[in-house]
Write the structure tokens for this entry.
Amino acid sequence: MARRPPYDDIHAQHARLTAWLRCNGRTSCAALGLACDVPSVTKRVCELIAEGWPIQRARGYVPTRSGGRRRATFYELTGPHPQGDLFQTLDA
């Protein structure tokens, strides 16, 4: 089994997940794992939610290869991080 580079830590995984959700919208847990190379998407998303990220979870269905469908969890970023824009001025 290949080892991950040392810079692929939790923070890098969080950054990949939030960037993907920001650009692509609602995505299934399995698709996030493949697209972002994150081994435990559920755990990382729960950590992001605990940090205050507005990520909504929803259950839905995805098609299977045999023509059926199976349940899946979907994640969606529903707004900006509560920290706000770091470059926003308070002059207004």
